[in-house]
Amino acid sequence: MNTRLLPDACAVIWVAGNRPIAKGARDGIAGALEVDEPVFVSPNILIASSFLPGAYPDDPADRIIAAAAREYDCRVVTRDRWLLDYAESGCHQALAC
After folding, report:
1. Maximum distance among all alpha carbons in the chain?
2. How far apart are CA 39 and CA 69, in angstroms?
3. By C-alpha distance, which of 10, 6, 4, 5 is closest to 80?
4. What pLDDT shows up at residue 63?
5. Cα first-last separation, the chain
6. 10 Å Cβ neighbour count for 11?
7. What pLDDT is recorded for position 31?
8. pLDDT, position 33
9. pLDDT in single tens digits along all 97 residues of the chain
10. With contact defined as beta carbons under 8 Å apart, do 27 and 4 qualify?
């Protein structure tokens, strides 16, 4: 399983605040700490966020996160229902936190 993670804002807030997160997300984050490969939002990702396959939301931040996850083959760490549902449709990978 891919260890590159892309946390969305809610995941960062929950982890930074020492709030409880799902065991799978906690284990994934622990494994990803050894991976030192940053994810950059390039112009190509911004363009790709406008042409995602399937149903996508109006929220541009969620679209950019999904496009970056697809481009870099990352798992999105999130509680965002749309990002989790989009992962279940096979468009990217996700870990529920």
Report:
1. 36
2. 9
3. 10
4. 92
5. 17
6. 22
7. 63
8. 57
9. 456 788 787 777 777 777 888 877 777 776 665 556 667 789 999 999 999 998 877 789 899 999 999 998 888 988 888 899 999 988 888 988 8
10. no
- Are the C-beta atoms of 20 and 51 separated by less than 8 Å? no
> Torsion angle, CA of 53/58/59/61, rounded to 10 degrees?
40
CA angle, residues 43, 49, 54, in degrees to nearest 5:
155
In angstroms, the CA 30 to CA 83 distance is 21
Q: Would you mind telling me the total number of residues written for the chain in this entry?
A: 97
Task: Give the per-residue pLDDT at 90.
Answer: 87
Return the domain boundaries, the chain.
5-96
SS3 (DSSP) at 5? strand
Angle between helices 60-72 and 81-88 in degrees, nearest 10: 40
User: Do residues 6 and 69 touch, judged by C-beta distance below 8 A?
Assistant: yes
Q: Counting Cβ atoms within 10 Å, is residue 56 exposed (0-12), middle (13-18) or buried (19+)?
A: middle
